[in-house]
Each structure stands twice: as structure tokens, then as C-alpha cells.
Amino acid sequence: MASWFEHNQASMLIQNLRKLSEINFLEITQQNQGFYRFISKDIKDKSFKIFILEPVFISEFNGFPNGFIADNPPYAINFQVFLNWIKSFSPRNYQTLIQTIIDGINATQQSLFLGCLIVNNHTLTFGIEHTALKNYLSSKKKVKLKKTVLNSSFTFNDCWVVLTDSINLTPNFVYKRNIEKLLSDNLSDKKIVLIGCGAIGGYLGLGLARLGAGSGNGELILIDEDIIKAENIGRHALGNTYVRHYKSTSLKFEIQSQLPALKVTSYEENIINAKMYKLLEDANLIIDATAKAEVSQRLNEVYFNTSAITSPIIFSWIRGNGECVQALFVDKDVKSACRCCLNKSGYAIREQYDALLGFDPIINFSACSDYTPFSVSASQSASALTIDLILDWLAGNVSPRYRTRYTEKWLGNRIESADYLPHSDCHVCQNE
Prior knowledge:
Blueprint: H1 2-6, H2 12-21, E1 26-28, E2 34-39, E3 47-52, E4 77-78, H3 79-89, H4 91-108, E5 112-119, E6 122-129, H5 131-139, H6 146-150, E7 160-164, E8 166-168, H7 171-174, E9 191-195, H8 199-210, E10 219-223, H9 247-258, E11 264-267, E12 285-288, H10 293-305, E13 313-319, E14 324-330, H11 339-342, E15 364-365, E16 370-371, H12 376-395, E17 402-406
Parallel strand pairs: 1-8, 3-5, 9-10, 9-12, 10-11, 12-13
Antiparallel strand pairs: 2-3, 4-7, 5-6, 6-7, 13-14, 14-17, 15-16
């Protein structure tokens, strides 16, 4: 193809078609109808304005028809044939495409148009060379509507379409394709608040993004006042690039470097701060991954005492040296155990909820601090357990609400994951 173009430079048509043929591997990140700018994997430091048509679904679809593969120069297909194909399954997109091209010509006098049709979650990108239509509109000073063009003697046989390659990064494709057969929805269009971006929260934030948090009209909010230290790297999702930077902001940058279309907001703040509670008021889901009992218990109290906070909240933590991980789903509209039912602030966990009853974890001491060692597998396991709870929430069936997942090496007593009623001595949910 390239050599043919190189020997046929005289025609403006050929030059325009060559321009279109070079625009490949566009990263399509939006799925709603309208104009957007997308980048190409092949062309650095430049974005392209592309019109997204209304997504459609066809019961049997196998891509562009074989007749659209242009084997002969100028390696393009007739626009009229292309339009007829679109009209056969989507008259609305047929009308929209023609009108949008006419509006563009009247506004800019350009001869090229880039578009994308999403069919059954396949992104079909194309470029249109429409000099013939531009010349026709120039000769008819007042032509602004597709109806006038369609009722005239003009045909689109002298306009051409070049099919291009694209990379589908739309929310419905990236965040739903792996779970669409599992009776689960994704997190698109929802406001998700993740508190704690450390050992658990780092992996969890990346997982939430892959479930669609921050896509569509949604937002993923990350809250953590701590910074990443060298000693954190061994069990954190982020590496040495982010050492001495805030965990929340670092996680935001990492998510957006992998999935740039997401809306992610970070706060370098402690959640135990009255001004931060406003962020929780219109959330769809709150997740506490701090794994700090005092923070979780205070957050639980605020949750039950603030009528404006209505979403469910999930608490996630690691027990012992990673012998098990646990998660608790709390919804104040459902009569079930809350975080403060498990143990009062400053007290040991109540025996009936204790997953490692009588077990004393190893604690390492250093000159300035002490810490409980556990491997990275515990961080990942806690994140996975929380995501399973989220998927059940999306499917509308959260049970059991108090979950424990042990390692294979744990040989002590185990508690079963279960739905617990509020504890009779709870100072929070029993006062509701």
C-alpha cells in the first residue's frame, strides 16, 4: 500500500486517503455519542478528533463485511456502500453520520472526517474523504440539512472510506467483558471511596479501576495521609518510583497511567477529620482498607451517626501474620453486625468473631517503631476477598456479610463466614 501511495502523489484525493490510512491503533476510551480526542499508539504527541456514533447491538455480527476489504488502489471503499451498510441495521446512525459531516464541512471546510462505530462492543474506526460533498455544499450556499442532500441529485459515490485499526478501551469492554456472564454489573457511573491506600488499598485500588470505578460519570476517590517508605515496597502494589510520595496520589498516578480515561481524585488527608466526611455523603460505596481498628471503629461510628451518609461500607483487614484475611459488609438499612460489634474501641475482639482465637502474632521491633510482618500474598488476598464482596453487592446478594479466608497452612480453629446480627452490647448500631 505504501509504495502505491508513494508513486501516486499528484491527486489531492490520494494524499487525503494516505493521511487517513496512516491513522491507526487509536485508543478509543469513550462510548457515548459525540466528538472526543483520542491518541494513537503509532503517532506520538498528537490526538485526533473523532466522532463516536451511538453504540448498537446486532444479534449476529462478525466485523466489517468482507466486501469492505479494499484489495486494489486506492485501498478505500465507496462511501455510499458504507452508508448503506450502516443504514441496514441503524437508520439513526445513518442519519446522524451524514448530518454531522455536513455540519463539519459548513463549520471548517475540511475534507476529512474521522469516526467510530461501536457494534457489540467492537470499535470500528474509519476515515472519510468527502471532498466531493464539500464541493457540492460550496456550490449550494444554503445547504445545511442532510434531508436537502439526500433529496438532491448528489450521491456519495465520489466520497471514500478508509478502515483503520483501533484499540477498544471503552468502559463496557474493559470493565465488563470479564464479568458480563457472571450476573454482575461493573462500577461505571458510581462514586467509590477507598480509604487507605497501603498494603491492602494499593492492590484494591487497581482492582476497583479494572471493575470500572471512575469510568463513565463515576469517580474513584482515594484517601490516605501517609507516604510510601522503602520498607513498604515488599508488600505494596507500588514500587520504588513512588517512595517518599503520598500513597493516595501515587496510586492515582499509577491507575491513570494504566487506564487514563478514569476519573480518579486523591486526598492526602486523614479520614478522621470532620471536613473529610462530606466526601462520603453521596458515595455509592465506601471501602475502609486502613486495617487499623481505631480508624475503622471511628469511621463506623461516624457512618451510623450521620444520616447523610447512606451507602454501604466494607471494612477489610489482615489478621495475625497473614494467617487469614477478613472483610465485613455493613449497611445500616439492614440489621446486621457492624464494625463496633466485633470489638469495642480499645478492647480485644469478641471471642465469637475472633478468627485466630488465642493466637499471638510475631511483632518486629526496631529503634523507632514496631510492625507486624506478613507477606504480599496477604495484601493480595485481602484485596481479592473485598472485591468478591463488591461483586456480590453489584449482583444484589451480599451474603455472608462477615467473611474470613484462611491460608492453607493455618491448622488452628476456624470460624465460618456468616451473617451475624448486631451484638447486644454494641454501643453504636444497637442505639439506632
